[in-house]
Design goal:
single chain, five-stranded mixed beta sheet, globular, two-stranded antiparallel sheet, about 5% strand
């Protein structure tokens, strides 16, 4: 690969994906959980009464050490360091996808097209995950590093592949597990370069050992994760309620059919590329999708059959993320290598359909009476034809091929989120939540506890907590930790039932005497006999304590 042009192109693709599509977010989803954990680890005086912050599940990741260290370099704000990690790891993922394409014999220009397909990401329904995470969470940083490890292994860069896998382990061991399994198989069965492959296991083993050591000396833990116990009936009920994505029996059966279909597509692409897929590429293309598919029945057996407490924490079914990522990459390679135009367009159509529609079958066998489906079909077909023309004309008619290639890379970033209306998460930010957080941060005691009493399952409370650096008594988003910590799960459920089950109490007496200092409600919510201590267009805040007339 031409190093300088390719590096520049990867950088451009990374920035385009970061700012356009799939984009990036902050404090809209899981970073609402990670941010208060990091804030308290960096400053133990903060959030002392918040169960999420006082029970961080960071023992088996270096995410906290790296992020806290970077925050100190940048003046105490976590955002710059986290976004830097996100940008770097996304670039590594794009590089990995391009290396896979190069290993299949594609030119460096066509390998960038394949990388751009991977960079579009995809929604993984069922286990509720993304192939390209919007937020800088450990799983989202580890995933692209696995693709880099796969690309390096396909290039027979065994030690570097092991190093990339080791970095993924340090961020999030469960995400690295599929590549670890495939790489071990390469070592056991490979007859050529066996010594070099064995050397690649060294950084993987070092990373695993380091994680084990760090887990023993982790500071700030309020509760240890139970790895080798059985989930009792009470905890199972809570996990099925709040973490249903781990329980395969709670999935809609069509999602299982979806992953079965994508595995068949990945297998067809592998067979189509069998002559080009040699060595490491063969193992990656065949092994990772198979691991992803088998993770579904494995998760079902270990969690719903054995009730093993490790499984909701390890979340093996999220390996379907890598099944999808490798399938898209394989389809892109097959489309670029196809000799017939129609075949090339079909492969590219599947590759573009995955990021455009969560359930791909809805675009492959579409109901064109639905306007949105019809628009998405038109977008996918336009992109597929453009990419197929780029592959056909790249060397034969470069004056036409290069503009088609540029269009095939650039247009998805505009068409899929624009006319295609693909957006995974709503934007929770609005000026009122920020003004509320600023008031709380500046005008209330750092030990104050807030409760958004009429918020229900909305996610604004978590946004407030991170910006205000003030504890919440309970909120819906933090309940996702029931998968990881049993004592937290029971405490979260007790608090939720205590304050959020049933109707809102307009007298606010329900919220007194349990550790809540301030109650936040919507501006339209009526509260009896009390005057707010703060208000804006969306919110009113009431201080609990003795009130006139009570």
């Amino acid at each position: 690969m031409r190093l300088h042009p390719a590096a520049a192109a990867i950088a451009v693709l990374t920035l385009a994906g970061f700012f356009l599509f799939p984009g990036h977010t902050w404090l809209q989803q899981d970073t609402q959980i990670w941010a208060p954990m990091l804030q308290r680890l960096a400053d133990p005086s903060l959030l002392a009464a918040d169960p999420v912050a006082t029970r961080p599940h960071v023992a088996y990741t270096v995410y906290d050490e790296i992020s806290v260290g970077l925050s100190r370099l940048t003046g105490g704000d976590f955002y710059p360091g986290l976004m830097a990690q996100q940008l770097i790891t996304r670039a590594m993922g794009l590089l990995g996808a391009s290396l896979l394409a190069r290993a299949a014999g594609l030119s460096w220009l066509m390998s960038l097209l394949v990388a751009s397909l991977f960079g579009l990401g995809a929604t993984i329904a069922g286990p509720s995950v993304l192939t390209i995470e919007y937020e800088p969470v450990p799983r989202g940083l580890a995933g692209p590093l696995v693709i880099l490890a796969a690309g390096l292994a396909a290039q027979h860069r065994w030690i570097w592949a092991g190093a990339a896998c080791g970095a993924s382990i340090l961020y999030h061991p469960p995400t690295a597990a599929p590549f670890c399994a495939v790489f071990l198989l390469m070592v056991i069965t490979g007859k050529q370069e066996r010594v070099e492959r064995l050397k690649g296991l060294v950084p993987i083993a070092v990373a695993a050992l380091l994680i084990g050591i760090l887990s023993r000396i982790q500071a700030g833990l309020g509760e240890s994760q139970q790895l080798f116990s059985t989930i009792d009936a009470e905890l199972e009920q809570l996990q099925r309620l709040r973490g249903s994505y781990n329980w395969i029996s709670k999935w809609d059966v069509r999602w299982i059919r979806h992953y079965e279909l994508l595995y068949v597509v990945s297998l067809a692409a592998f067979l189509r590329l069998s002559r080009a897929a040699t060595g490491g590429l063969r193992y990656v293309m065949a092994g990772i999708p198979l691991y992803g598919l088998l993770s579904i029945p494995l998760s079902y057996a270990l969690l719903e059959g054995w009730k093993w407490s490790l499984i909701p924490q390890f979340q093996p079914a999220r390996a379907t993320m890598l099944l999808v990522a490798v399938t898209v990459t394989a389809c892109g390679i097959a489309g670029a290598r196809a000799t017939r135009f129609w075949e090339s367009a079909v492969w590219f159509a599947i590759a573009f359909a995955v990021p455009t529609q969560t359930e791909v079958m809805q675009l492959l066998l579409p109901d064109l009476r639905q306007p949105l489906i019809a628009k998405r079909v038109a977008i996918v077909m336009t992109l597929a034809v453009t990419a197929a023309l780029a592959a056909r004309w790249e060397t034969r008619r470069p004056r036409l091929g290069l503009p088609c290639l540029a269009a095939a890379v650039a247009l998805p970033l505009i068409l899929i989120p624009g006319p295609g209306e693909v957006k995974n998460y709503p934007n929770l930010d609005h000026p009122e939540i920020h003004s509320l957080a600023a008031w709380a941060r500046e005008q209330t005691d750092p030990a104050a506890v807030f409760q958004f009493a009429d918020a229900g399952k909305n996610l604004q409370p978590g946004l407030f907590r991170a910006h205000a650096k003030r504890a919440l008594y309970v909120d819906w988003k933090s309940g996702g930790q029931v998968n990881l910590l049993k004592e937290f799960a029971l405490e979260w459920w007790r608090r939720w039932q205590q304050t959020m089950e049933g109707k809102f109490d307009p007298t606010l007496r329900r919220y007194e005497g349990i550790g809540i200092d301030y109650v936040v409600v919507g501006a339209a919510t009526k509260v009896d006999g009390r005057e707010p201590v703060f208000g804006n267009a969306r919110y009113r805040v009431y201080r609990l304590g003795p009130q006139p007339g009570f």
